[in-house]
Design a protein that fits this description.
The chain is mostly helical and 176 residues long. It has helices spanning 2-10, 13-38, 43-50, 54-60, 70-80, 91-99, 111-129, and strands at residues 133-135, 139-140, 148-151, 158-161, 166-169, 172-175. It has two domains: 2-108, 434 Repressor (Amino-terminal Domain), CATH 1.10.260.40; 119-175, no CATH class.
């Protein structure tokens, strides 16, 4: 119901202009505030890290301000040690993205947290997938007989595999 009413309103070009502008301002201001709060920084501390005055940070956290430059946002991103992504999108994508936003979307991990997560993921992948692992014979998936359920003995992880991904040996099946 909400989506159909919104789409009806978006047929008006002036409404689309204001809707997209409001979404961008709301997201940017909320992210700056959420990231600052996560880091337990005052506006003055963020301003020092970004080479700006505290009153400039206050304006950037105000959704009614909305006069952001890409250079200013890059300075803020650098202060938080996160990336800035600016891109054009369809109105439908903005509507769908806006409906699915979660609080965690406002506070992406900084680079050190990203690096730690990446290293853990790489270690997990290397442990599980970069070498043949002896597993029990694949079991046909009841929902789709062309697929097989495969369980790794070393990790207990399960995944769905198609026949070309599975090879057999004298000691049983293993995943390629």
């Amino acid at each position: 119901m909400f989506k159909s009413r919104l789409i009806e309103k978006l047929k008006n070009k002036e409404y689309r202009k204001h809707f997209v502008g409001a979404q961008v301002r709301r997201l940017v201001t909320a992210q700056i505030k959420a990231l600052r709060d996560r880091n337990r920084w005052t506006q003055e501390e963020l301003g020092q890290r970004a080479g700006m005055k505290a009153n400039a940070i206050s304006r950037l956290e105000n959704p009614d301000y909305g006069d952001f430059t890409i250079n200013t946002l890059l300075r803020i991103a650098e202060a938080f040690d996160v990336a800035l992504v600016v891109r054009f999108a369809s109105h439908g994508e903005v509507v769908a993205w806006n409906r699915g936003i979660t609080p965690s979307a406002y506070t992406p991990p900084d680079f050190s947290a990203y690096l730690q997560q990446s290293e853990q993921l790489v270690a997990r992948i290397n442990q599980s997938f970069h070498r043949p692992i002896i597993i029990p014979t694949p079991v046909p998936c009841p929902e789709d007989p062309s697929q097989f359920n495969v369980t790794f003995k070393s990790t207990g992880e399960r995944y769905l595999a198609t026949p070309p991904q599975i090879a057999t040996s004298e000691s049983g099946a293993y995943a390629n």
